[in-house]
Specification:
161 residues, alpha+beta, four-stranded antiparallel β-sheet, 5 helices, 4 strands, globular
């Protein structure tokens, strides 16, 4: 999928945008699949109405279902109230992808960001989701999925308190 997309783009920004769009389409289908699977297991399936519990479900059980393990960290931004981060030290999506030097800043995790954005939209939490490479000495492929919530989500969360 990465190779297919790479042949049809004009630059890195266009590449990431297309990966995000593909991920969004996948995310809608994965959310439906996850709902069917959990509905069969649970006698009384529930829809999350609070953002933090929905984010925890995405980062733990959904992530395990899709990628084989949970995210490494779920964090709230210290400086901005409407930003949350999912950190993955060794992203499964980029494990077998080698990026050429001319595309050094490319984040193939834009596909994953699209999946997360679709799941949040499907659950009723509209947000803008982007992927950022944050390499460290220990984890050179570390990726942070940045979630910027829509104002309506923050207003609803405030009303539910």
């Amino acid at each position: 999928m990465i190779q297919y997309t790479q042949k049809r783009v004009n630059g890195i920004a266009d590449f990431e945008r297309r990966l995000n769009t593909l991920g969004y389409r996948m995310g809608l289908k994965l959310l439906e699949l996850y709902a069917w699977r959990t509905e069969g297991v649970s006698r009384a399936p529930k829809r999350e109405t609070r953002f933090l519990t929905a984010l925890s479900t995405i980062g733990n059980s959904m992530w395990k279902s899709f990628f084989g393990r949970a995210v490494d960290a779920i964090q709230k931004s210290v400086t901005v109230d409407d930003e949350f981060m999912l950190t993955e030290n060794e992203p499964a999506i980029t494990k077998f992808i080698s990026i050429s030097k001319d595309m050094g800043i490319l984040s193939c995790s834009a596909l994953t960001a699209g999946v997360v954005e679709a799941i949040l939209d499907g659950l009723g939490f509209p947000a803008r989701v982007t992927a950022h490479n944050v390499p460290t000495e220990t984890y050179p492929n570390c990726t942070t999925i940045l979630i910027k919530l829509d104002r309506s989500v923050l207003d609803r969360e405030e009303a539910l308190k």
